[in-house]
Model the fold of this input.
Amino acid sequence: MLTLKDFHSDDPIAWCPGCGNHAILEALKDAFVELQRKPNEIVIVSGIGQAPKTPHYLRSNTFNGLHGRTLPVATGVKLVNHELTVLAEGGDGDGYAEGGNHFIHAMRRNIDITYLVHNNQVYGLTKGQTSPTSELGYVSKTTPWGSFSPPMTPLLLAISSNCGFVARGFAGDKEHLTFLIKEGILHKGFSFVEILQPCVSFNRVNTFQWYKSRVYKVNDEPEYNPKHRMRAFERAQEWGERIPIGIIYKAERSTLNGQESAIKDMSLVKQKIDQASFEGIFDTFK
Amino acid sequence: MAVDVTIRIAGQAGQGMQAIGFIMGKIFTRHGYYVFTNQDVESRIRGGHNFVQVRIKDQPVHAVSDKVNLLVALDKSVIDQDLSDLADDGVMIFDGPKTGFRSEKANYFSIPLEKLATETGESKIMVNAAATGAAFALMGVDLQPLLDRLEEEFGRKGPEVVEKNQKTASAGYRYVQDNFKGTHPYRIPPASSMEKRMLINGSEAMALGAICSGLKFYSGYPMSPSTPIMEFVASMAEKYGIILEPAEDEIAAINMVIGASFAGVRAMTATSGGGFCLMVEALGLAGMTETPVVVVVAQRAGPSTGLPTRTEQADLRFVIHASHGEFPRAVFAPGSAEQAFYLMGKAFNMADKYQTPVIVLGDQHLNDSYFTVDSLDINEIKIDRGGILFDDGIASIKDYKRYLWRDSGISPRILPGQSEAVVYADSDEHTETGHITESAEVRMQQMRKRMRKMEGMTEEMESPEIYPPGESDLVLLGWGSTYGVMREAVDLMNLEGFRTQMVHFSEVYPFPSKEFLNGSMKRAKFFGVENNYMGQFADMFSYESGISIFHKILKYDGRPFSPSDIVNQVKARI
Done:
């Protein structure tokens, strides 16, 4: 029986006190405990920023790579060893700015990876610049005139890219977030969980209180069916006075398309290389 | 009588020159000759001016010749542009009625190619078959091997396509027999030795080398001239249990490769200079996280888009220095199909052993050219996965330090999920465990650990090939795809009484031991021969060896050297 202790890491945490990341880290550990996934069977691939430090603060296999490149690395890991539980984790700068193209293509491929994006609508580690999800008119040192560009809409993008699991959680509701992460991991195929995360140091607009007074759980509405794509589009556009959290969209799609033959018996990492099998490989050239 | 004949088939893109070149290469290889086939194509799908050149020799051959002996002109523009490359006694096949070109020269054969194609093959597209048949008749080669080869080549397109090609080729063959009876300006009868040799291009040799080294994962984005590597791996993926994932860009490609390698399999990508530009950040990631990766960079003429379908050797310094910061890497530069095959095996072993990136440099000339190869030996590739722990004992390991100090710089490696332990890998400077650190002391330790690998790698680098052995007054110094043409230039120089040697590097970085520099060589006059503007390797050689190279023979027009390009420039400067 795995407990929280099994996921303990000695690495000292470098986040600001009161940061939303602390609750996200706890939710992630709770999800692993509830799912009874062993630390050595989990791989978390993270990028660069404050969010990507998360895997250091728990016990699991970790690949802390480049800014924005989490999803290709996670894809490579999962394709050659599908027995591992693979997650990718980063912030809004990492995933939506630097890694935007990979995000679209990872959804298209539908490899069985869970992608967690800590969205605090600001660049934290570089100390408070405008991000792709900062509000229109957001004032920072890089947009002292107020941002001219409206924020991007990752949930809409995900639904239109046929992502089979699109959810949004809130760092201020750890239990609900744990549930979403668990469901994301259990979903067969690419799952996307955006996490609203207040930045206590730099984002003076989108504070804990700001989110708390707006978020509501869409799945509490008995008539809401996340398999209904057009309804999901409507909810994904909702932002302002009310912000939906929960499982917004869900669909079944086949995964690892066309790759089954190489790994039908076992994962590639377990396959021994037999040089005798190359006998005759030159024949077509003769 | 010695055979050394070059056939050029020239015309517009889409006229099937590559198919003819390949068919001729295949037939003459089976007839016991050595063949070298290179292509000169424009970056377009239809039209323009393109050619494929097949050199047929009774000795191993790795280079283009100076002159064309048989020119097959599929288009009027060929007559305008290519006649200057024809040898004085050279032969041309052209379509008199179609082009309106007339000549009194006995060696210029007017054959109504388009008429034969439309009448017999029911399509203008069959012009290439008619021309091939005519060329075979002029060379005194039997028709049957050509008909057989057409069936092998086009069989997958259905019996109708095969039949049309065969009929049209026969019509071209007969036309020459009927109208130019007994004329064989270049006779190439089957040679006495009929060993089963291979015809293979540089890209195929690289891909085969990778597969025979246990490649399990490939990701890439198509870019000339590297694309055939990806296509060849894809064609073999199912049979040899390889996963190939087409990437959205080169950044994704190399990061996927890094992920697959971190998880534990042999993984690679291939690209050209522009794509490698996008991979540069992740090259450093592989160095920092100590993840083995093999990257083929098939060079083309740059900078930027440059000459997309043409050759250059201008990315040597780029790949040696690519990415910020300092980390160990190795760079190989094969000069022939054989070297390409075996060096891929060495690249994977070095990457695994030293847990760091290895780059294999090709170029358009090496990758697209076909070579006749006597044989390749799978057993010469000894798969060595280096420091990965595979034995049964590791399942019980609980505590593990991915970056544990070792004097060699090489930490024992376990894979995620393989034991009770977890693996932390990080692009930040990290502790032995793999957690982020700012400690000056740990930074120094980990830098030293990584960079110490260079010492072991240097010892494993092979010395350059020196040809011929002995002493010399003149040295041609080069690397990579100029191997064949330098050898030939050296032979020509020695025939004329100049004591000349080639020094060819196929393992370029880290620079191998300098023991090969003998006494006479230190007094010899060096000529750096390279397909670039700056003489990048010559400068590196000077820096490493202390020998100043004042003479550089450089070509950066996107075309390969011919032997006389080199010989004439050397003689002009002695």
In short: The two ends of chain B are 33 Å apart (CA to CA).
